[in-house]
Design brief:
The complex is a heterodimer of chains A (263) and B (520).
Chain A lengths: L1 E5 L2 E3 L20 E3 L1 H17 L2 E7 L5 H10 L3 E5 L9 H18 L5 E5 L10 H9 L2 E12 L3 E8 L2 E8 L2 E5 L11 H7 L4 E4 L39 H12 L4
Parallel strand pairs in A: 1-4, 1-6, 4-5, 5-11, 6-10, 7-10
Antiparallel strand pairs in A: 2-3, 7-8, 8-9
Helix pairs in contact in A: 2-5, 3-4
Chain B lengths: L20 E3 L4 H14 L3 E4 L15 E4 L6 E6 L5 E5 L5 H10 L9 H12 L3 E2 L11 H6 L7 H4 L6 E7 L5 E5 L9 E5 L5 E5 L22 H5 L8 E8 L1 E2 L3 E9 L2 H11 L6 E7 L1 H13 L15 E9 L2 H17 L7 E4 L2 H28 L6 E2 L2 E2 L5 H15 L3 E6 L4 E6 L4 H20 L15 H23 L20
Parallel strand pairs in B: 1-3, 2-3
Antiparallel strand pairs in B: 4-5, 5-11, 6-12, 7-8, 7-11, 9-10, 13-15, 13-16, 14-15, 14-19, 17-20, 18-20, 19-20
The chains are: A alpha/beta (263), B alpha+beta (520).
């Protein structure tokens, strides 16, 4: 079983800084973590490998500091990692990012066999687009199953999973190759052990440039991104507290009115 | 007293007392007024913070409750002679909010002096800062922490609250005040002279006992040639009402990693603790959870709810030691981790049976794991209490010198086996300070548990240990302090108290039985 997992480095808090010119997020690697959804994808890969054997390669596109999250995946049990890092990739939207990731995956497939399963988190918490998975599937020409909440069966030639979206639950069976985007809480991501952390420091981690993966520069980075960010703003939040006094029936009635929008 | 204020009659020790009146002063002037009123009427005063204490020091038994919760401002900032930032806190500042404000470098500076504002500007430009004391209960107040000399996991490396306080300002029951800066008043042998405000002087004869060479929060801190700040910190609300506490900050470690190491048995874990002390750079905490505590967590996790977020603990993991590492570079952290792994292996553990947390989210998960243990036992006791109201958790708080760790673990295991009592143990094993929590199933087990605890206390004193390592003596461990120091030394403590509080108004029943008064 060959499994590819795509992961992204995201800020660990909501206090992010934006580039005033490009309107994109400044990613300096400080206080950065692996996108929480991607951790579930890594864990799912590890569980499939535990059950069926095989090999896990983790991919990311980002600044050199993003190697930290790849080492994190390696420390948990992934076998190999690839970082696509090049100034040409900077400012990429989801289309340009998925293009770069697919080139990385293809390059690994050239020297090894094809990936049976490609896993992504459902979305990244910094962009919330949930587009990378489906776009990557399109680039790779594989079937995408999005919003996977449960893996019911995984065999050497097929899997059965449950996808949930808009409150609906759908059981889906697929043969390989297949791409899954996973929900949070599909599993409980493991923490690495000491040996894993130390091994990850010397584990195979390759950094490839746009040229090394044979990228068409017109499809990379800001140039290759049809998404144009016109304006970004921090949503305003209003909080107000009212103190009510009175008997239980009176207060319950008043609350009922408030909930109905009468107050 | 108004029934809505009934909560001031109890604290986390789950004891409930009684009182005639309560006040919530907001500043020092109001404290002086309240104390003057109490003095005029001869009312005893019980000082409170957030009432998170576990030894009932804040539980009143008559008289007036002076609750400091509304004295919750940070009053100023300065840079000390060693270049460290120092923040002046009112006693009601809540630890979690204090830490948050330090992290955000954001304080309400209204009313701050020009010097404070200048120092604060420096603080804002400085590297990330850190207040080291970390008791498990982050809703504790700075005043409460100073009163009981609180500590936490990181006390292993950074010391208890006392080490992080550089000044205490205190209203005495006489209406005088003391304002004590570290280095300003140093005892001559066992005699300490303090100037009072607005005038007067106290000549304090310090008790003659020698404190155990362990983590200790039992009784007054006394040493030859000691600093007066060290006496006031840990005085359990018996000497005065703290109105200002200067808290010293340190540079935030660049890296904080947590490692939970699992072992097949307690004896292997103890060997690991003995092996690891002093061998790993940047080791700031060594905490333990025994097999019973891990089993409680497994059961809680199975029941779901908030506990389902707990990481699954495999069945064959018999004991956990949590190690926290702080460091300046990733290379240094990796080297410490490597040594830690070697030591795990050396004592017969498996470096693959460990959990390493290297970011805030994962550290938060391990913290949740650690906090879930006492919470699980509280839930268990609450369920049993519904059937048998006299049931209560009996949690020990004793420490022994490094050389006695194996001996004390053996003592606890033998006692539990002989009495057939259920328990769950966790705590600060790096400081040989394990909280053995007896979990009685009926009234008979409560009684036998209390007797066992007292026997252990005597044995711990014989080992050169302390009967209260971090929770203080308060009112619940008065008998143990007596067992630790004896009548003569308790009398010396009483005499010390009388120097500060001649009318014996403050903290009656804390540390020792009130003269002619009540016990808990």
């Amino acid at each position: 079983m060959n499994i590819a997992v795509c992961v992204k480095q995201v800020p660990s808090s909501n206090e992010v800084r934006m580039d005033p010119v490009t309107k994109t997020m400044i990613r300096d690697g400080k206080q950065a973590v692996m996108n929480p959804y991607d951790r579930f994808a890594v864990e799912l890969a590890l569980q499939m490998k535990d059950r069926l054997g095989g090999r896990i390669v983790v991919f990311s596109m980002g600044i050199p500091a993003a190697s930290r999250i790849l080492k994190e995946a390696l420390s948990c049990g992934a076998d190999e990692a690839v970082l696509l890092s090049d100034r040409a990739f900077a400012g990429a939207d989801t289309l340009a990012t998925s293009y770069a990731l697919h080139l990385g995956i293809r390059k690994v497939e050239e020297r090894c066999s094809r990936f049976d399963v490609i896993l992504c988190g459902r979305m990244a918490i910094d962009g919330d687009t949930a587009q990378i998975g489906p776009e990557l599937a399109e680039h790779l020409g594989v079937v995408p199953i999005t919003d996977v909440a449960e893996l019911l069966e995984a065999e050497t030639d097929r899997l059965v999973c449950v996808r949930t979206a808009d409150g609906e639950r759908q059981e889906v069976a697929a043969t390989y190759p297949v791409l899954l985007t996973v929900h949070k809480d599909i599993n409980q991501p493991r923490l690495p052990h000491i040996e894993g952390v130390l091994w990850a420091e010397t584990a195979p981690l390759q950094v490839w440039s746009a040229q090394e993966v044979g990228a068409d520069l017109s499809r990379c980075g800001l140039t290759g991104s049809p998404t144009q960010v016109v304006r970004t703003q921090v949503p305003e939040r209003e909080q107000a507290c009212q103190m009510w006094q009175g008997g239980a029936a009176e207060l319950a009635s008043r609350l009922h009115g408030l909930l109905k929008g009468e107050e | 007293m108004d029934e809505r204020l009934a909560e001031v009659l109890r604290d986390e020790s789950r004891n409930t007392g009684f009182a005639d009146s309560v006040s919530f002063p907001t500043n020092e002037q109001e404290v002086l007024s309240v104390v003057a009123e109490c003095r005029a009427h001869g009312w005893p005063i019980t000082v409170q913070g957030a009432r998170t204490g576990l030894a009932a020091a804040a539980v009143p038994y008559g008289g007036h409750v002076l609750n400091c919760a509304k004295m919750n401002r940070v009053l100023g900032c300065r840079v000390d002679s060693r270049g460290r930032f120092v923040l002046t806190c009112q006693p009601g500042v809540i630890l979690s909010e204090f830490k948050k404000a330090i992290e955000k470098k954001s304080f309400d500076v209204s009313g701050w002096s020009k010097e404070s504002l200048l120092a604060f500007e420096q603080f804002r430009k400085a590297e990330r800062q850190f207040f080291a004391p970390d008791p498990t209960e982050a809703s504790a107040t700075i005043g409460g922490m100073a009163a009981c000399n609180a500590s936490g996991a990181r006390t292993f490396a950074y010391g208890s609250m006392r080490a992080h306080v550089s000044r205490v300002r205190m209203v005495l029951s006489t209406g005088q005040m003391v304002d004590v800066q570290r280095g300003q008043y140093v005892a001559n042998g066992r005699e300490l002279r303090l100037s009072c405000l607005p005038q007067g002087e106290l000549t304090v004869t310090l008790p003659s006992y020698t404190m155990p060479n362990t983590k200790n929060a039992a009784g007054y801190f006394v040493q030859d040639n000691m600093d007066a700040v060290d006496l006031l910190v840990g005085s359990d609300g018996t000497l005065g009402v703290m109105t200002e506490i200067d808290c010293v900050l340190m540079a935030h470690p660049a890296f904080i990693w947590g490692v939970s190491c699992f072992f097949p048995s307690e004896s292997v874990a103890v060997e690991f603790v003995i092996a690891v002390r002093g061998k790993v750079a940047g080791l700031v905490a060594l905490e333990s959870f025994d097999g019973d505590a891990l089993q409680l967590l497994r059961e809680q996790r199975r029941q779901g709810g908030a506990f389902s977020r707990l990481p699954a603990v495999p069945k064959d993991y018999g004991y956990c030691v949590y190690a926290e590492l702080h460091g300046a570079s990733e290379d240094q952290m990796l080297e410490s981790l490597r040594v830690l792994g070697e030591l795990v292996q050396q004592v017969g553990g498996d470096p693959r049976q460990t959990w390493v947390a290297r970011n805030e989210n994962d550290l938060g998960l391990l913290q949740f794991f650690r906090h879930a243990v006492p919470e699980s036992t509280n839930l268990l006791i609450d369920r049993r209490k519904q059937v048998c109201p006299v049931i209560t958790k009996l949690g020990t708080d004793m420490s022994v010198p490094d050389a006695c760790l194996k001996e004390v673990v053996g003592l606890y295991r033998r006692g539990l086996a002989e009495e057939g009592l259920q328990s769950a143990s966790w705590g600060h094993i790096g400081n040989n300070h394990i909280h053995v929590n007896l979990l009685p199933r009926d009234a008979d087990e409560v009684a036998r548990g209390k007797a066992l605890y007292l026997r252990w206390a005597k044995a711990v004193v014989d080992m050169g240990g302390a009967v209260a390592a971090e929770h203080g003596i308060g009112k619940t461990k008065v008998a143990m302090l007596l067992a630790m120091y004896g009548e003569q030394h308790i009398a010396e403590m009483r005499a010390l108290k009388r120097t500060f509080d001649p009318l014996n108004l403050l903290g009656r029943g804390n540390l020792f039985q009130a003269e002619g008064g009540e016990t808990v």
